[in-house]
Amino acid sequence: MKLESFVLGAWRSGASEGVALRDATSGELIAHATTDGFDMAAILEHARTVGGPALRETSFHERAALLRALGKRLLESKEDFYALSHRTGATRADSWIDIDGGIGTMLAFASKGARELPDGRVYLDGGVEALSKGGSFVGRHVCVSRAGAAVQINAFNFPVWGMFEKLAPAILAGMPVIVKPATATAYLTERVVRRIVELAILPPGTLQMIAGGVGDLFDHLGSQDVVSFTGSASTAVKLRTHPIVTRRSVRFIAETDSLNSSILGPDAGPGTAEFELYADEVVREMTVKAGQKCTAIRKAIVPATMLEAATAAIAERLAAVRVGDPRAPDTRMGPLASRDQRHEVLHRLEELRGESDLIHGDPHDPRLREANARGGGFLAPLLLRCRDAASASAVHSVEAFGPVATLLAYRDLDEAIELARRGDGSLAGSLFTADEKVAAHVAIGLAPFHGRLLVVNRHCAAESTGHGAPLAPLVHGGPGRAGGGEEMGGIRGVLHYMQRTALQGSPAMLAAIGGRWIRGATERDPGRHPFRKPFDELAIGDTFRSNARQITVADIEAFAALTGDNFYAHMSETEAARNPLFGSRVAHGYYLISAAAGLFVDPDYGPVLGNYGLDELRFVKPAKPGDWIKVRLTCKEKSLRADKGWGEVRWDALITNQDGETVASYDVLTMVSVHAVPDAAR
Amino acid sequence: MKLESFVLGAWRSGASEGVALRDATSGELIAHATTDGFDMAAILEHARTVGGPALRETSFHERAALLRALGKRLLESKEDFYALSHRTGATRADSWIDIDGGIGTMLAFASKGARELPDGRVYLDGGVEALSKGGSFVGRHVCVSRAGAAVQINAFNFPVWGMFEKLAPAILAGMPVIVKPATATAYLTERVVRRIVELAILPPGTLQMIAGGVGDLFDHLGSQDVVSFTGSASTAVKLRTHPIVTRRSVRFIAETDSLNSSILGPDAGPGTAEFELYADEVVREMTVKAGQKCTAIRKAIVPATMLEAATAAIAERLAAVRVGDPRAPDTRMGPLASRDQRHEVLHRLEELRGESDLIHGDPHDPRLREANARGGGFLAPLLLRCRDAASASAVHSVEAFGPVATLLAYRDLDEAIELARRGDGSLAGSLFTADEKVAAHVAIGLAPFHGRLLVVNRHCAAESTGHGAPLAPLVHGGPGRAGGGEEMGGIRGVLHYMQRTALQGSPAMLAAIGGRWIRGATERDPGRHPFRKPFDELAIGDTFRSNARQITVADIEAFAALTGDNFYAHMSETEAARNPLFGSRVAHGYYLISAAAGLFVDPDYGPVLGNYGLDELRFVKPAKPGDWIKVRLTCKEKSLRADKGWGEVRWDALITNQDGETVASYDVLTMVSVHAVPDAAR
Known about the structure:
The structure is a homodimer.
Chain A: E1 5-7, E2 10-12, E3 19-22, E4 29-33, H1 40-56, H2 60-76, H3 78-85, H4 92-116, E5 123-130, E6 138-145, E7 150-153, H5 161-173, E8 177-180, H6 186-199, E9 207-209, E10 226-231, H7 233-240, H8 243-247, E11 251-256, E12 260-264, H9 273-287, E13 297-303, H10 307-319, H11 339-353, E14 356-360, H12 369-373, E15 382-386, H13 394-397, E16 404-410, H14 413-421, E17 426-432, H15 436-446, E18 450-456, E19 475-477, E20 486-488, H16 491-495, E21 498-505, H17 507-514, E22 543-545, E23 549-550, H18 553-563, H19 568-571, H20 573-577, H21 589-600, E24 608-619, E25 628-641, E26 646-657, E27 662-673
Parallel strand pairs in A: 7-8, 7-10, 8-9, 10-11, 12-13, 12-17, 13-16, 15-16, 17-18
Antiparallel strand pairs in A: 1-2, 3-4, 5-6, 6-21, 14-15, 19-20, 22-25, 23-25, 24-27, 25-26, 26-27
Helix pairs in contact in A: 2-4, 2-5, 3-4, 4-5, 9-10, 14-15
């Protein structure tokens, strides 16, 4: 059987015989994979000219809805994916991380996109920058979809999650995707893509998948393309120094496996909850996916005084781990992905043993011999202990990508930090402590060398997602050896597929380009009170200017009596005079914004459903008895909630005094119906 | 004379004779520069172990104060810098961009740092991420100083600005800097660094400067270092593919000169203000610094119908440009940086002339012959016109880095966009139009290919800083040919020198690490009302829990009468029933936060000076007559304004109802005196 690729809108297979893909348990042939003869330039161009334009027609919310629909439908087919996943060596629990975890990551991006991005195509990054005294010249940053293709090269260990954690942010950003799964487990990715193609939810050209090598694809990359790579550091170097990548400054995001540490705090001795949690976590990280995770704990760094106890606790748990057929429900750990992978791990193990002792597990466990003879990649979990952590080097540089970890002893916290830092850049680190001071010291010490840090204590352990799990809202990546890249991190991950551009010009021009009103831009006459206009009729710039109202001592006192807010600066001329900011009695800030609402609210039943909040309220100049205030309210930004029958409308509010000085500045957030007469019955 | 470098805390010169640096006007020898024999590994290590730790002891505000003090003192010496700057070929106006512009950029970062960063060492990036249902496990991102050295390699054209635009964000981030100016004009950088060293404002080891080649410095780079490079694309490729840079994922920021476009809008015909502004700007960009700017306009893209008029307007202005000794007050344009630079430009000119006609200026202007014979690099400004813009290629790829620009004609806006995009990634683009629709269409079309876009109309022209000027608050950089990097952009530029790390754990742990209270973290008993505690005595987590208060129709009506806010949902049971969100009569949101203040405010004179704002106010659940509300107020974050005698204190406020449900959530911002009894007289 020849594994097919989905390219140029159709399923195709390559010209040569290709690479043999085999079952991790039995060594049985599953398929051959090849992309020989593929026109990689045409595949890139298909993404750029068919997928990209179609995707960029849609808004962030529409793209989020595509991802949500896709995720929900894929969950219906997941048992099919689980069955195939066993062939990679994954147990049901391993497969849950890959399949449910992968689809869940896509759904998390769908949700982030709907909640945190506007119903538009331009993302506004940061606020307006004042570039001139007179205010006629301002700046702001926008992010727009890059006009190229996203080439996403994934590792063999998570054939489903690896695709979705990269694909979801790219689609949300408006970039078409070419997925290149690691060939060894591409059959599972292929099955999922086949289902995606059948569902026909994504616009044509948005997703292509090549099962096999990239061929000459890199020769055809352009400056608008993005390459996102997960895999070995050596392949990352090879790809990122490709002459086209460097000459055209192709954006290149690398996430490479790293040597990750977990530190047991000096307070977390035997008998504490944190000690038990630590031993559990080290064993979990060694055995999940048979330790084939780029985030797995490789260095278990424990106080020298607790070395024996930690060794015993971990060894005891390892002894209970059942290694075997990943399909069997009582199997805790399956085989490595292939026999080759097993040989590679054993080779690295020998390097590590030059300075560490093997203290638990037999690399040639006789119980696994028979299964391996049939072609399996089984390996017992192996715990090492470093003879002299301070002088060791292999433990900080050699990664055995399997169920292998090494214990290191530290004398004081600074040595623990130093031992973790010697990984020279890691994806993930963790610390088990109940002591906040220890946590602060270690976390700040480790942070420059880590992309993610987990602190576990008894209070969060039950809900903790664990050392090794990257999560959609948090960045995944790390400095140095970890590749220097970042993925995910919520909207941050979406922006990797967009171009940030600084805009400069008049407020009106920047409002026209960014779709958000800016102070100084044109104020439109809405024709009637803007609160009487349904969502679709409201225009950016629609402005209401109120009458003026005088601040009086009587009103201040009535407000204080009603609310109970008798702060001295409002209530006593003498006491207020002692306040260095006021000098004399001032109105309550809360009164000013309440009175401003009284000045701008249109009281009758209508399309404005309610005020759901205020943003960035600043009291700029105090208002004092005798002052007159008035308010300008301008429609600043609109974002439709198509499924809800209303949209969010942000209003720019400015309270000024009789001299035109700013008293208060804020955004008013309202929900506005798409109907002129909304009704509870709708 | 041998130019000295400032390394390892002392002024030193290299071992060999080195490169001869010459006056751009006369060819006269200024100095020799060499770094032969320098121990580059020691220089890097000096930054990392002396400068870095000293700088990281200080807070963002303290670093901002260092930069401000340094900038102010340097301005006192600027006439000395101006005198030397003429030797680079710069006129007084050119030098203003470099010297005042450079110091001004540093002062702008000082101001941004004081206003937008906290008085601490950890930058909190984004909000808290809920990672669990129960709330015991949360996430957030922090940015901390990278533990390495910032190696900053600058171009020859702005020896002062080039240093400060990179140095300021790095220092603010807490990273020590090694400046490597372009050797050709390093004597001016050296003069400024000499003054910086004399001033002794920066901590030892924070700033080193090497006047000459980088030697083997790259062989000693580590994973925590950052290289920030400005210069040619070919050098950028060479440096970014250095084996150490790729193997250790050294963060590498490149800004390379690019082919930048300026488009004349179809509405901006002869006779309009925008047409005149366009002709002025093209000429300014051709002549400032003799066109030696990486952001300069190289392609002037005009409507075909206006080609003749635009040619005439630009040529007329060019004819009035006086080229000569940069020291003479009536000189508009000085020489190129060197004779070699002139030869290089003439060489590129020939390439461009293969598809464009020279329509103004003589590359061998007899008026400049004598000065050039003495060793000067003088060149008259040269305007070309492309014979067929659509089929041309050199105009989109060959850069003559001097006073050279080419006119291209377009038929419609999409062709104009396409012609600009063919630069394949630019630092800056501009558009001259009075039409907002044109601006929106062109800007969105250009944005993916540009780091910065300027839109000029008659309203902003007087205050516009121009096509070529990078500004501290805006990103400087661009995709593709422009190098793919970003610098500046306000705080964004500071974060380039920091590591972003995702933290996960219990709310209390994350509060302890990040220095900001998080919901769910420990609530401290402040011992007394927290408003009675001066700034230094307030602790993060200090919490006040109020009594409850009942919502009544009488209070709602009194509030409406006092404020004038008679919105129907507050005033009429029947009308409110028609509102799909409320269903029945609700209290004003403004009333809820005002009553909450009544519940939490301590009325007597004391250290809390005032409430200067609210952030992220959200009304979550309506409060109705009969409901009881109460408020929890917790000290969330503190940032001292040491020079002002008070600090900013952010309080987390949560209004709940009788069922413990959230009614409203917001941050209250206050100024709190460092004194228990503040006084106007202080």
